[in-house]
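worker-3 :: picked Chaperone protein ClpB3 chloroplastic-like
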Amino acid sequence: SRLIGAPPGYVGYEEGGQLTEVVRRRPYAVILFDEIEKAHSDVFNVFLQILDDGRVTDSQGRTVSFTNTVIIMTSNVGSSYILNTDDDNTPKDLAYETIKQRVMDAARSIFRPEFMNRVDEYIVFRPLDRDQISRIVRLQVILSSLLIDTF
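worker-3 :: C-alpha cells ->
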C-alpha cells in the first residue's frame, strides 16, 4: 500500500503512494529499486502491472503512467557466481557468458517467469579488479584533497 497508497478509510489515504505520487508529479524519472529480491510478493504484483501496461492505478483511482519512467532494479541473486570466478585459464568473454548464464539461472529460480519476461534488459556486472579499485581510490584521494584545500 505504500507504493500506490493506502486504501480509502485508512490512515494516509489522502497522501497517495510513495511511488505513484513521485511519478505522477515527475513522469520523466529514473527510479532505482535496490535488492529487488527482498521485496514482498505484493510489490511484484504492482511491478507486473507497471511493466505490462505501463501504468498503474493508485489508491485514489488515478491512473499513473510509467511510459516515460526508467525503472532500474538491482539484485544480489547469483552474486556468489560472480565472486567465485578467478579462473585465469578461461577467456574473459567465455567466463562472462558462463557467469551470466549461471546468474540468470539463479534469478529464474527466485523470480516468477511472468516477472522475468517483462524486464527488457539484464546486465550482469563483473567485479572490479585490483587495478580498477586502485584507480578509484586514487581519484577519491585527489577529490578529497581538493575539497580540503577549499576550506
